[in-house]
User: Which sequence fits this backbone?
């Protein structure tokens, strides 16, 4: 029997989500203040983007233990702990973003977006990416 290789590992999922988060933050920053209600479509899209950022950060936080399981099996405890500390912010920021988005607190959303962007400043997303708009429909998932 040959080895089974999972092409959708937690690391690849984390990379894909971080790029999508950077893209969502970029698009959210381009919009004017959603609380002014300048356009109904802009408010809905801003809510989707904030909800997507919250959900994606939560997914990243949930995948951390999966990522370090292999290291812990080999007794690489220091490496596993360092990785956990490096990504500990994801769950915390995701929860704060969720609360801010659900309460329509756009000042907090903007502040959190800036903090998240700073954490993900090394992530590069080209202008001609092929991700589309991964945040479409995220508001319904978050508000369930």
Assistant:
């Amino acid at each position: 029997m040959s080895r089974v290789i999972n092409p959708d590992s937690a690391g690849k999922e984390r990379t894909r989500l971080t790029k999508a988060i950077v893209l969502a933050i970029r698009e959210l920053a381009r919009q004017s203040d959603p609380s002014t209600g300048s356009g109904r479509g802009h408010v809905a899209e801003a809510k989707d983007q904030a909800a997507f950022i919250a959900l994606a950060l939560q997914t990243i936080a949930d995948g951390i233990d999966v990522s370090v399981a292999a290291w812990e099996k080999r007794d690489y405890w220091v490496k596993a702990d360092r990785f956990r500390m490096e990504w500990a912010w994801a769950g915390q920021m995701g929860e704060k973003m969720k609360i801010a988005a659900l309460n329509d607190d756009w000042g907090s959303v903007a502040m959190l977006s800036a903090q998240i962007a700073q954490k993900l400043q090394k992530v590069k997303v080209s202008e001609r990416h092929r991700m589309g708009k991964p945040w479409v429909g995220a508001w319904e998932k978050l508000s369930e």
Observations:
- The chain has one domain: 10-143.
- The helical segments are 10-30, 40-73, 77-102, 106-119, 138-143.
- The two ends are 44 Å apart (CA to CA).
- The mean pLDDT is 86.
